[in-house]
Amino acid sequence: ACLSGRRVAHDDSLTCIALGTYRAAAGATSMTAGAVPMHFLASCSADCTVKAWSVKEHVVSLQAALELYDLEQPASCCDLLFTHERSTAYCGLLAAGADDGSLVVWAFGSLSTTQLTAAVLFSRKIQTGKERGVLCVKFLTSKRLLVSTKDGGLLCLDMKGVVMCAIIPAACVLAMEVTCRLDTLVVVAGCSDGGV
Questions:
Q1: Which residues are CB-neighbours of 16 under 8 A, at least 6 positions away?
Q2: How far apart are CA 72 and CA 187, in angstroms?
Q3: Cys-Cys with 78: which of 44, 65, 134, 171 at CB 3.0–4.6 Å?
Q4: What distance in Å separates the CA atoms of residue 49 and residue 71, rounded to the nearest whole number?
Q5: Helix/strand/coil (H/E/C) assignment for every residue in 72-132
């Protein structure tokens, strides 16, 4: 897989990318306060890795700012969210799902354009029916994550990995991609049968 200028980013095919921007909170005292926003790209791959890259002036960095090896099966999807809420102990979140139903959420402890630090916030297996596998993950807020599964389930989880609500359709129609509006919490799913 290649990023910006045909650089090798992973040892196998890219399965998903997500973009995120960190903006320092007003009145923040960190090194980034008053600085221009920092842009990042998350990528995941069939090689079971998840990486985060700094993006400056529309160019992806040569070196990954963060490499994560917590998945045992090929990664199928990822999402990235940055926050400056004072009620959280982290400045950003990265989630990735895998073909075996694994779901991992990492919390960023510090940010710079050259290096990120992250720790696993939670890790769990997702299975809502006979078939395992995570198709899509999207942060609804810094406290809620939406997950679609290979068996047609749509789950909302908190940041401890607890399922807050679940939609399991009678007919197995897969939510291949989900997106949401954070200001109104409207969720739209693109399904395997062509429906929305």
A1: 43, 44, 75, 76, 77, 78
A2: 29
A3: 44
A4: 7
A5: CCCEEEEEEEECCCCCCCCCEEEEEEECCCEEEEEEEEECCCCCCEEEEEEEEECCCCCCC
Contact assessment for residue 60 and residue 4, using Cβ atoms and an 8 Å cutoff: yes
Q: Which two tokens stand for residue 150?
A: 């290979």
pLDDT, mean of each 10-residue run, the chain (196 residues): 56 84 61 63 89 80 82 89 72 90 88 77 80 84 86 85 76 55 55 60
CB 72 within 8 A of CB 48: yes
C-alpha span between 46 and 95 (Å, rounded): 15
Residue identified by tokens 């998350």 is 42
Q: Are 137 and 144 in contact (CB under 8 A)?
A: no
CB 94 within 8 A of CB 118: yes
**Distance in angstroms (rounded) separating the CA atoms of residues 104 and 123:** 4
Residue 186 structure tokens: 């409207």
